[in-house]
Known about the structure:
The complex is a heterodimer.
Chain A: E1 43-52, E2 62-70, E3 74-78, H1 85-92, E4 98-103, H2 111-117, E5 118-121, H3 133-138, H4 153-165, H5 181-194, E6 199-203, H6 211-228, E7 231-235, H7 239-245, E8 248-253, E9 256-261, H8 263-266, H9 269-276, E10 280-284, E11 290-294
Parallel strand pairs in A: 3-7, 3-8, 5-6, 6-7
Antiparallel strand pairs in A: 1-2, 1-4, 8-9, 10-11
Chain B: H1 3-7, H2 31-35, H3 41-60, H4 68-78, H5 90-124, H6 137-150, E1 156-157, E2 160-161, H7 162-185, H8 189-213, H9 219-225, H10 235-253, H11 255-260, H12 265-270, H13 275-297, H14 303-315, H15 319-343, H16 352-370, H17 372-375
Antiparallel strand pairs in B: 1-2
Amino acid sequence: xxxxxxxxxxxxxxxxxxxxxxxxxxxxxxxxxxxxxxxxxxxxxxxxxxxxxxxxxxxxxxxxxxxxxxxxxxxxxxxxxxxxxxxxxxxxxxxxxxxxxxxxxxxxxxxxxxxxxxxxxxxxxxxxxxxxxxxxxxxxxxxxxxxxxxxxxxxxxxxxxxxxxxxxxxxxxxxxxxxxxxxxxxxxxxxxxxxxxxxxxxxxxxxxxxxxxxxxxxxxxxxxxxxxxxxxxxxxxxxxxxxxxxxxxxxxxxxxxxxxxxxxxxxxxxxxxxxxxxxxxxxxxxxxxxxxxxxxxxxxxxxxxx
Amino acid sequence: xxxxxxxxxxxxxxxxxxxxxxxxxxxxxxxxxxxxxxxxxxxxxxxxxxxxxxxxxxxxxxxxxxxxxxxxxxxxxxxxxxxxxxxxxxxxxxxxxxxxxxxxxxxxxxxxxxxxxxxxxxxxxxxxxxxxxxxxxxxxxxxxxxxxxxxxxxxxxxxxxxxxxxxxxxxxxxxxxxxxxxxxxxxxxxxxxxxxxxxxxxxxxxxxxxxxxxxxxxxxxxxxxxxxxxxxxxxxxxxxxxxxxxxxxxxxxxxxxxxxxxxxxxxxxxxxxxxxxxxxxxxxxxxxxxxxxxxxxxxxxxxxxxxxxxxxxxxxxxxxxxxxxxxxxxxxxxxxxxxxxxxxxxxxxxxxxxxxxxxxxxxxxxxxxxxxxxxx
Lengths: 306, 376
């Protein structure tokens, strides 16, 4: 585990190009190895010493985070409330000011160019009153349209295709307000897919959904990731889903990257107990994925110990 | 949409840049997607027909009745079209061309400007209650214009007029103040509205003080404050028309971007828009429109809120639909209001601002009651 929890002051802190030859972080216990995942060597996105502050001289909510994300990979950002997961996602999407660099294919993209490379799904998306599902999804074409151009036939066709793929075709003319929570999450996902960006950022994609709908959305994301070769970075609360769906986990704590690696290496009792400040037990399910069970304790909180 | 269906014989090819062009035809784009953000031509034609009908009515009706059927021939004759001769007397022609027509056209332009400005503010601030009158824009424009009129600083050439310029500066000051105050007070639509009320009250107080202090110099301002379309000839039309044309074109050109802004700044930015820049351009255009309208016609309230809301109630909330229809509807609404202003207490005139407030205030209350979902 020492390979996973690294001090961020190390020269190559946080760098985990997920190549097989990348040293300890890449060498995975066979039990924890997930068969289908052979991370391609192409880097889709590279974060270099990202700092995010909301007040100019305030404390950083994200501090010194450096990470490479491979093309086609699913990286889950985990961590306690306020750890900086959402802020890091917003920094990648270019929505908050930050220092450090987010390297995409294009060095310093304009909002429009960036939106063609990175699609962002907010935790609580704004649903404009009176807007239909089809209109909402068409907004995803914004980055592909010139200033004075309206959506053309190709844009409408792209929207129709995605709606069909997400089993939303018959809801096109329905008002967003008339959709259920699970359907809405698919609608929001549809808008992001229509953007045709290669990197998909999801901020707590299942937080508003029940168990079944939550898993359904994650399965859909995974299918789309494989179909379209998307790179997915998602902030996730549910460690079980994070471990089951993501190739790699990055644990943030007080804005700093404190652990990252394959789920089996991050979802361990010492790491989770320390950073979530509650004792946990990590069980293994039949297929080898980690199941995190919080333990009750008579004492209100355990002091930081590991 | 399925590829099987699309690949069936008879599938048309589409001349655009996607690789699957020619394989999938239009028929498989379902109705919801095909209709998204589209203004149906039929509705546009109906709105234009209503506006033209109201224009005809307001030209025909008055102490001197001009037959509707004589209006078009008279206009054609005036334009020296061959083969058309009017049967109107010279006196009727003077009434038509020096009084009725310029006044109706001016009313149409003012209504168009105020409604378009209101619809734009509502989109930019994502606030169904935003309106040039309620935001303090009109009050700012009024104060600017009052200073120029009362201070006898009127000068200018055509549309470049000191009254319009001062009104524009005041309008921008009003909206910037209201937006800044409203942001400080919170992000709810009500906060912006309350800030607008505070700004409008303050600016109106300054204006009233100026008028009271020097009532001789400001006498002209008095009638103007209540809103008026009294005019002789085409001077005011020539002043206002360029503003309506240019700002209207800018706003209509950005109607798609205004639809993107409906998801909020953060998400709009993630979709590839620069929300700050779009907002700046639209606020300047909407304020210029409102200021130009105020400069020629005084403070006419509620047009900017009644017309866009009626449009939304009738045909939906996409700005691609709301903006053009508000422009036409605003023109029709104000011409109709002016018809009322001229005829209700004839031969005296009711200030047109009184008519629009009389209709608009109850409507505003109605919006508050029924629109709680959108406003809360």
